[in-house]
Amino acid sequence: MKKKALILFFLFLTFFVSRILYINLSPLSSGDVKTYALYSYFWQIGEKTKKSPYTIYNKYILKKIKHAKSESSKEKLSHRQHIEYPPLAVFFTLIPGYFINNLSKKKNNFSFFLKKYYLNYRLLMFFIEIIMFFIFLFLLFRLVPHKSIYAHILYFISITLTLSVVSYDRLDLVLAFFIMASLASLLLLKSVFLFFLFLAFAINFKLSPVVLLPLWVFGSLPYSKVRRLLFEKQYHSIIFQSVVQGLYILFLCTLVTFPFYIKYGLDGFRFFAYHSERPVQIESFYSSLLSMLAVFGYPTSSGMSFGSVNIYSNLSQAFVDFTPIVMILVSFFTTFLIPYCAYKNKFFFQKLDNKSKSIAEVFPSQFISLAVITIMGSIISFKVFSPQYILWFIALTPLCFYRSHNSFLLGLFLCLVFSSLSTYIFPFIYKKHIVNYGLGPSFYGASVLALRNILFFSFFIFLIRNLLWRDHKTMISVSNKNLSEK
User: Fold this and answer.
1) What proportion of the chain, given as a percentage, has pLDDT over 90?
2) Beta-bridge mates of residue 304
3) Of 209, 256, 386, which is closest to residue 310 (Cα–Cα)?
4) What is the pLDDT of residues 415-451, one digit of tens each?
């Protein structure tokens, strides 16, 4: 017992020390924290002058456009006239600034503010990641056999350390926290309200988690009731309950959004226009497909806009228009995998003593796997794929493997490699081989991007295979364990 406690303490110490060391490293010159500091700075000015911070920010960008020396610089700045984040995400960027009280009229005032903001921001992210680490531990002890727990913890530390570059210089770690907290609310606290509320926070923070809505709705339904309605062929009752739960989530989303709408009006929602105008980004899967076609002579071109390198061709707009359809298909595909897996393994033929358990509670590991598959599938369908998107699901991946040590090792290898490649792409080769002086990726840069995307897609397929073709007896035994717990 003492030996296991010592190992656990050593792993936590490794996690803690590695983060403390990273906090003290110099911030990325190409990171987004400077932009977040601007938001916080202008919000404080807005509070003192009683002006809308959105208006202050807009005037600041217009002034920069006016003094820009080239037309290309003016065009790049024109895309940033409106804040690109939802109000809840912007609100989060204000928090580190509230601990800085230095809004004097000195010309170098923002430089001082920025220096303090960097440290506060990273400390806040460190605090969030510590909370995520403990949530992960609680989920791990709940779902994974004790003999492999230490390997899973080491995996979590390794994979999150690999992505520290984007963890502490982007907002996406907060989104990952909301998703993990949502899952823990149902699987550990058995609270459907918190399960939905954290999803509402996630959707308001960065819209993308809306793809999880059907899965969350179905996972929240009572297992025993759904089982009875299926046997009685009362499918309309299941649909009705699903619609009610879906409306419940949408109500919570509206509740989170409403205060921002009252305070800032439509100014807080102009990010919709920003993202709708974005073209196909060079790191996306659509870009990889267009780059492959370019090898065979298909005409494509690259250019800088919206803070990224983008690819243009006759098919680009078709991919952009197709994105929402693919996201919807991915969302419903993964949701209907639950009843498929349950029926295939005769789970819905088993009675449950605790009738209050939800479907997600009865099949927790399978549900987490489906959540990861849904997020990965949506990323594959996005017209933009930034390295930090991997943070949305990567902390949950160790919880998807409880059956086979070989599956765990292969999953670990694939995750570590495509995460390492993402970190290698940004920031190490991004400027030289991806931006490439505005010309688009060099052959080397395009090759690394393609390899990262191939490995990402391979892991996506591997997860689906791991879910659908598990050993039947092992699945039954794991399910029986969950069914018997009250």
Assistant:
1) 32
2) 309
3) 386
4) 999 999 998 988 888 888 887 776 778 888 888 999 9
Distance CA 460, CA 376 (A): 7
Name the CA dihedral angle for 230, 234, 239, 241, rounded to a multiple of 10 degrees: -90
Q: How far apart are CA 153 and CA 134, in angstroms?
A: 11
Q: How far is CA 327 from the centre of its chain?
A: 15
Helix (H, G, I), strand (E, B) or coil at 309: strand
Pairing of strands 280-281, 308-312: antiparallel
Residue partners of 225: CB distance under 8 A and separation at least 6: 241, 355
Q: Please tell me the predicted confidence (pLDDT) of residue 249.
A: 96
Query: Exposed/middle/buried for 116, CB within 10 Å: 0-12, 13-18, 19+?
Result: middle
CA dist 476 and 452 (Å) reads: 35
Quote the pLDDT of residue 29: 60
- Cα separation, 117 vs 100, whole angstroms: 7
The 8-class DSSP code of residue 108 comes to T
Torsion of CA 249, 270, 178, 455, to 10 degrees: 110
Q: Residue 301: which pLDDT band, with cuts at 50, 70 and 90? A: confident
Of the candidate ranges 175-184, 301-310, 339-348, 456-465, the one whose mean pLDDT is the lowest: 339-348
**Residue found under tokens 């009362």:** 234
Q: What secondary structure letter does DSSP report for 426?
A: I
Please give the structure tokens belonging to residue 222. Answer: 């009572």
Beta bridge partners of 309: 304
- Distance from C-alpha of 188 to C-alpha of 368, rounded to nearest angstrom: 13
Report the C-alpha gap between 221 and 195 in whole angstroms. 12
Helix 149-162 to helix 2-23 angle, to the nearest 10 degrees?
0
CB 427 within 8 A of CB 30: yes
- Alpha-carbon distance of 69 to 80, in angstroms, equals 17
Taking phi first (over 0 means left), then psi (-120 to 50 degrees means alpha), and beta for anything else, what does residue 70 get? beta
Bigger pLDDT: 83 vs 186: 186
Three-state secondary-structure class, residue 30: coil
In 3-state terms, what secondary structure has residue 279? coil
Rounded-to-integer distance, Cα 386 and Cα 122, Å = 20
Under DSSP, is residue 478 helix (H, G, I), strand (E, B) or coil? helix
Alpha-carbon distance of 454 to 20, in angstroms, equals 33
Choose from 89-93, 158-162, 422-426 the range with maximum mean pLDDT. 89-93
Q: Quote the CA–CA distance of 417 and 415 in Å, as a whole number.
A: 6
161-207: pLDDT as tens digits: 888 888 888 899 999 999 999 999 999 999 999 999 999 999 999 99
Going from N- to C-terminal start, the domains of the chain cover 2-484
Q: Which amino acid is at 34?
A: K
